Amino acid sequence: MKLLVTNDDGIDAPGLAALVDAARNFGEPIVVAPAGAQSGVSHRVTWHDGVRIEPRGDKRVAIHGTPADCTRLGLLHVAPDAKWVLSGINHGANLGADVYYSGTVAAVREALLHGWPGIAVSHYRRTGVEFDWKRASSWMAPILADLFARPVERGIFYNINLPLLPAGAPDPEIVWCELDPNPLPLNYRHEEESGLYYAGDYNLRQRTPGADVDVCFSGRIAATAVRLL
Fold this sequence. Notes:
Layout: E1 2-6, H1 14-23, E2 28-34, E3 53-55, E4 60-63, H2 67-78, E5 84-91, H3 103-113, E6 118-123, H4 133-149, E7 156-162, E8 174-176, E9 188-191, E10 195-198, H5 212-217, E11 221-227
Parallel strand pairs: 1-2, 1-5, 2-4, 5-6, 6-7, 8-11
Antiparallel strand pairs: 3-4, 7-11, 9-10
Helix pairs in contact: 1-4, 2-3
């Protein structure tokens, strides 16, 4: 089984390598990822400018464009026989309203538009705390096994968010839950010379009990089936 793997942190991101490691347990991962960081670009695609495809060897291709561009060109030119599109592991959570801003999630949503099933994977973070990508990869293996074994349901993609846990903590529980409908906090700081900068505290966002923000913040893996409207 061929698996198209992309992200929005760029082709050299360690989170991408962690997802590729997990995917190797189930098939042949083919990386088609942005040449550089594209975080937060949402579902932007390149319309009027050229998009360059840069082979990087060992089934890796860099796209000089957005995550949605990567999905389009990956499915059209690089791996049209891929069975699934995987995106991540994002360096930061994509919970609730984040799915509208995230390039990681947009890459999978673009796949769904063209008839391919997809899984977006993100990892909650806190400033100053390092990711354990080997552990994150091991958490993803049973999740991928479960999802690959399910019948493909058109119009559905999966959004997975891994928690940040202390070293040596037991493996987290996987909880199927809904997206949290609360918006991100509105807060901006003003800098005289350069304008307004978003300054909302992600960790203080509202949490609906049992929804994905609450699940992930409480140390469990939040798994959500998202229906494309």
